[in-house]
Amino acid sequence: MTRKILVTAALPYASGRIHLGNLLEMVQTDIWVRYQRLSGADCAFVCATDAHGTPTMLKAREEGVEPEAYAESCRAAHMRDFEAFGIRFDNYHTTHSPENRALVERIYKRLADGGHIRTRTIQQAYDEQAGMFLPDRYVRGECPSCGAADQYGDSCSVCGATYAPSELVNPRSILSGLPPVTRESEHKFFRLGPFEEPLKAWMRASNLDRGARNKLAEWFKEGLKDWDITRDEPYFGFKVPGEEGKYFYVWLDAPVGYMASFKNLCGAGKDGEERFERYFGADSEAELYHFIGKDILYFHALFWPAVLMGAGMRTPSGVFVHGFLTVDGQKMSKSRGTFITAADYVAAGLDPEYLRYYYAAKLGPGLDDIDLSLEDFAARINSDLVGKLVNIASRCASFISRGFEGRLGPQLHDPSLHEEFAGARDEIGELYESRQYAKAMRAVMALADRANVWINEQKPWELAKDSSRAGTLQAVATQGVNLFKVLITYMKPVLPRVASDAEAFLRCELAWSEVAAPLLNARINQFKALAQRIQPKTLKALVESSQEQAESGSGRSAPIDIEEFLRTDLRVARIVKAERVAGADRLLRLTLDDGGKGRTVFAGIAGAYAPSMLVGRKVVLAANLKPRKMRFGVSEGMVLAAGEDDSRVFLLSPDEGAEPGMRVR
């Protein structure tokens, strides 16, 4: 019986660009899906842009467009990036869709009718300067559980604790940088606690990694808390039926977006409804898997299954969780040039398949973080893909083209070796199935090493010098081409473009079920290079390009003496005008009153401040910096700010009474 599988990846948020961290999960998921299809399963892969929430609303306001239009433009950009990296969805939808609205309202009604929703008056963080209640992630402070600094208002990235924003120590609004005040508001809560035992049973029966199970056990021990599922206006999302000024929280409608994307794929009418029910009905026999990062495990392994249980729908068959991505051993950093977007990578001329392979060579089924070392990245691609795998075909194909008019021989030189290579299919398939990609890559490359050693032993270049040994030469070259065919079939889930080019070269489809059948007495096309070496200058250009739009890093410098420090002319300035810079998501163009003729400064603070928040604000200006020519114009100084992450930057401002032009002492 053919397996029926539905796979999802976490929904990328509308207000952000796709970066290498997003691609880690998408590549992991796409490899698994491609393997399932290659091995004969009926496997659908759906996703969507997570359109709703306050960040989308604020970003749209900055752009001067409606949130719907802004979210849709982001969805189009996401799709372009994913397509470039070979991510093949059956449907890539949006959470701002009629299907999602209908499903969210249906689920909410079922939960309310089942007694799983209750109303509570709560105290919420409110930013008086911005004039709005703050989403959990717009409040940052110290974790109340472990004390880690600079944590979001809903969960701690260090210890994994979940809490309310009011529980943060030393909280502040990321909109204004000011401590929020507390105001009361009435909200709807999903009662998670009563689902503890069903959730434990689901955990035991579902496909979860041991690390994820251990984390869930910690949360069960702490006790499950009711979950706030509504937000106050202004908010971009779906209104709660029958409620005034209330919207469904994005964390309720986002996971429902998986269902909505699949429903959109199924289509309208009776046939579409029946197909949807076969996958999401309570008695569904189809498999459902979510690929996610470990930072959203709580939502996907507790909140989401409980919501589905309460709504009378099937629960996931498994939740596959991966760790974070670091670059050169550290968090991605714009100032270091290691916050690299998908577009940055492609623009540098790097093959997306190389990143797919590198991720595969690092990934296992657990929660361990993955490090992208740029030096190791280049070395591994040059060694494994170019020097080992592709080299097998390039070493043998030329003899077939030149000496035998492009026709493979009627037999292999060493059939037992080919059988050994083909015999690894089940083992490698199981490694794909269990998401042990790194082990699968090692197994394939070990075979590639063996193939190259065998070719060295047979010395086809020596055989080509003796016309009496033409038959042996053809059999040896045919063997090499067929060993390559086996290996590239194993790599097809990871390297879809290379595999497609190999199919054109071999003039046959690479089928998992046909691995053991050698390609004999068949014509092949002339071999063309399937992969090129990565040059150091390419990676250098990638890093420099990423640094271009970022201000200088905030790392500690060597000590300086007082005379050197006093040469920096720090002045008070007032922001007269602030505007976004077309083509530079990180920069704002600031027009400053510096007590003189005025000046223009480009500041990398767009991730933390909307332009409308800055006009009239006083800042500290480094006034005697040499003008810096940028792609977007000339920056005539620098405004001082604190923070290492562009989304958590805090401008330094003088006290009241300071006037533009005053020297900072």
Separate helix tally: 20
Shape call? globular
- How many strands in all? 26
Q: Biggest sheet: strands side by side, in what order? A: 3-2-1-14-15-10
Radius of gyration: 29 Å
Contiguous uncertain segments of 5+ residues? 551-558
Q: If you average the pLDDT, what whole number results?
A: 92
Largest sheet: 6 strands, parallel
What is the first-to-last residue Cα distance?
A: 78 Å
Q: Could you tell me the strand content as a percent range?
A: 15-25%
Structural class: alpha/beta
Fraction in helix: 40-55%
Ordered list of secondary-structure elements with their pairings:
Layout: E1 4-9, H1 20-38, E2 42-49, H2 54-63, H3 67-84, E3 91-94, H4 98-113, E4 117-127, E5 132-133, E6 139-142, E7 151-152, E8 169-173, E9 181-190, H5 196-205, E10 207-208, H6 210-222, E11 227-228, E12 230-232, E13 246-248, H7 250-266, H8 269-280, E14 287-293, H9 297-310, E15 318-322, E16 325-327, H10 342-347, H11 352-362, E17 370-372, H12 374-403, H13 415-422, H14 425-433, H15 437-458, H16 460-463, H17 470-490, H18 496-506, H19 536-548, H20 562-566, E18 570-581, E19 584-593, E20 599-603, E21 618-622, E22 628-630, E23 633-635, E24 638-639, E25 641-642, E26 650-651
Parallel strand pairs: 1-2, 1-14, 2-3, 10-15, 14-15, 16-17
Antiparallel strand pairs: 4-5, 4-9, 6-7, 6-8, 9-11, 12-13, 18-19, 18-21, 19-20, 21-24, 22-23, 25-26
Helix pairs in contact: 2-3, 4-7, 5-9, 7-8, 11-12, 11-15, 12-15, 12-17, 13-17, 14-15, 15-17
